[in-house]
Each structure stands twice: as structure tokens, then as C-alpha cells.
Amino acid sequence: MTDTDEAVPLDEEHEELLAAFVESHGFLSWLDLRVEELERGRIVMSVPYDEKLVNPGSEVGSIHGGVAASLIDTASGFALRSTFDDPTTGSLATTDLNVTYLRPATDDLRVEAEVLRAGESMGFTDTLVTSVAPDGETKDVAVGRTSYRLFRE
Predict the structure, then answer these.
(1) Overall average pLDDT of the 52-75 stretch
(2) What is the spatial distance between Cα 25 and Cα 12, in angstroms, rounded to a whole number?
(3) What is the DSSP letter of 83?
(4) Burial of 142 from C-beta contacts in 10 A (0-12 / 13-18 / 19+)
(5) pTM summary value
(6) Mean pLDDT throughout 12-31?
(7) How distant is the alpha carbon of residue 58 from its chain centre?
(8) Quick check: 139 pLDDT over 60?
């Protein structure tokens, strides 16, 4: 996953600090973003269905695609940050965000981001957004690939 020596595994303190960041971030807290799983190089996050996220006039109650794109970007950044020696320091900037929409999201959203590569200055992720379809089956609603400029300490 990284081109550098293995960093210290994420500990409970780092997980708590990252969760606190989500809670204190205006946009992410407005989305009601939740961290479900977090480990080195991988994160799972979710956003519950809410009418405020639905496209106006949508007959099926589909969630606006920008929510899925935001999830892809946010989860990717957190997954990459988890590869830092100290995930609470340093910074990163999105350099490319590619989103492919597969079908409308009509229920809670779940995103899983996995680091493909985290070098000294660049990182890349692969993501999958899923939602429960009207037939009750969990289906893929969007896939994404991202690249980031990493600013390690």
C-alpha cells in the first residue's frame, strides 16, 4: 500500500480524532456522515437517507449525485490519511476525482474506499458506493477513482 516504511497502525486515539473531525465539519455533519469501519488504507462510511438530499421532483426519491461524489472524495481522503505516520497531521489535496454513476440511490448510502497506492507525494484510491434498491437488494450505485497530492510532515 505505501512506498515507504510501514507506519504505526491506527490506534483508538487516532480513530477518535478522525471521528471528531467528521462531527465538527459543517458539511459532513449536515450530511450526517458516519464512520463505520476504519483501518490502515481502508474506510467504510455511511450517510442515512434524508429528504433534504433528494433530487427535486424525483419520482423514486433518488439522492442527488453530488452526495455520492462527496462520499467518494471524503472517504478516499480519510483512507489515504490513514497511511500517514500520524493520521491527524499533514494534509492532502484532491487532484483528480472520477465518479461513474451506475443507478439511482434511493436509500441509505454506504461508501468503501481502499488505497491502491500511497507514495511520498501522491496517493490513489478505489471506491464503491452502495444503496438498497426499491426491491430491497443492496446494489452498487457509483464507483470512483481518486488521486491526491499528499503533504506528509
Answers:
(1) 92
(2) 20
(3) T
(4) buried
(5) 0.86
(6) 73
(7) 25
(8) yes
Q: What is the pLDDT of residue 32?
A: 86
Domain ranges within the chain, ordered by starting residue: 12-151
CA distance 9 to 151: 19
Strands, E, within 12-137: which ranges? Answer: 34-39, 42-47, 91-101, 109-118, 122-132
Query: Residue 96 — φ and ψ, nearest 5°?
Result: -155, 135
Torsion angle, alpha carbons of 94, 98, 99, 102, to 10: -160
Only one residue has cell 443507478, namely 103
Contacts of 23 (CB under 8 A, 6+ apart): 29
- Coil, helix or strand at residue 62: coil
CATH class of the domain whose range is 12-151? alpha beta
DSSP assignment string, 15-49: HHHHHHHHHH-HHHHHHT-EEEEEETTEEEEEE--
Rounded-to-10 torsion of CA 98, 112, 151, 83: -150
Is the pLDDT at 81 greater than 80? The verdict is: yes
